[in-house]
Amino acid sequence: MTADAGALRDAACEFARAAGAILLEGYGRAHEPERKGRIDLVTEYDRRSEALLVSLIRGRFPGHAILAEESGMHDGAARAGGPSRPGASVRWLCDPLDGTTNFSHNYPFFGVSVGVEVDGALAAGAVYDPVRDELFAAAAAAGATLNGRPIRVSGIGRLEDALLVTGFPYDVREEPDRHLPLFKEFLMRAQGVRRDGSAALNLCYVAMARFDGMWEGDLSPWDVAAGSLIVREAGGVVTGYAGDPMRLDGRRIVTANPTLHARLLEVVALHPEAGALAR
């Protein structure tokens, strides 16, 4: 890894806090979100938060690439008047407002997610919940923290003792038979299942043992970049639905401590339709 993971983590924390202040400014107000799809929403605060993140990253790391939810890919800036750098070895993955539907209804569960990838490997990440002032962070091989204190995944190994979390993709109404059977399977087997609308925060809650495990499909790279690293650095396992190594473009994740993770994969395997690509 050519960049300092600790320095990237600290920068991600700083940037996430700054963007979170914008979200907190908008929290509690009446919102008129736009629709990117039939259900998928975007607000002015998504855009303001993202514009600030891009500006902050550009200002400090002009040669780095950025992948942001609303504006897409930004190549690394040119050096000394040279060409742009589409092959920049460092890439920032930003979700300026994870939990937009919650935010637009003033439901207090949303945050900013900032992940950093170096030479194709996750190096650092920060997820900030501005309502609770909780900052989750990690750097590769340096552990995970909540507001600076180390965190660890739970030790629950039995599915019947586990509190799980998931989310439904935006096509759940069009393809309920692809998503609901697996949800029902876990609902009948686990101690409890929650669905609260922010994959980034859900991953962090797994990392610090508020949840014991998580599964979710149809996710985007910016949803999971920071949170998946935070879980791994807290001692958890993050894979695809088949137990394959997690890829940022893989769209499906299963995560828990190593023992419970194996149990989750057994249940996911009962419903291969859940891992099918969206049509």
Structure summarized in a few sentences:
By secondary structure, the protein is an alpha+beta fold.
Distance between the termini: 37 Å
What percent strand? 15-25%
The counted number of beta strands is 15
The biggest beta sheet is recorded as:
8 strands, mixed
The residue fraction in helices comes out at 25-40%
Q: Give the count of helical stretches.
A: 7
Order of adjacent strands in the largest pleated sheet: 4-3-5-6-7-8-9-10
Q: What is the H/E order?
A: HEEHEEEHEEEEEEHEHEHEEH
Radius of gyration of CA atoms, rounded to a whole number? 18 Å
Unreliably modeled segments: 78-87
Average pLDDT rating: 90
Shape: globular
Which structural class best describes the helix and strand composition?
Answer: alpha+beta
Description:
The protein has 279 residues and is α+β, with helices and mostly antiparallel strands. It contains 7 helices and 15 strands. It has helices spanning 5-26, 44-60, 100-104, 176-189, 199-207, 221-233, 258-268, and strands spanning 34-35, 41-42, 65-68, 72-74, 90-98, 111-118, 121-129, 134-139, 144-146, 149-150, 163-165, 192-194, 213-216, 237-239, 253-256. The chain has an 8-stranded mixed β-sheet with strand order 4-3-5-6-7-8-9-10, sandwiched between helices. Strand 7 and strand 8 form a beta hairpin. Helix 1 (5-26) packs antiparallel against helix 2 and helix 5 runs parallel beside helix 6. The radius of gyration is 18 Å and the shape is globular. The N and C termini lie far apart (37 Å).
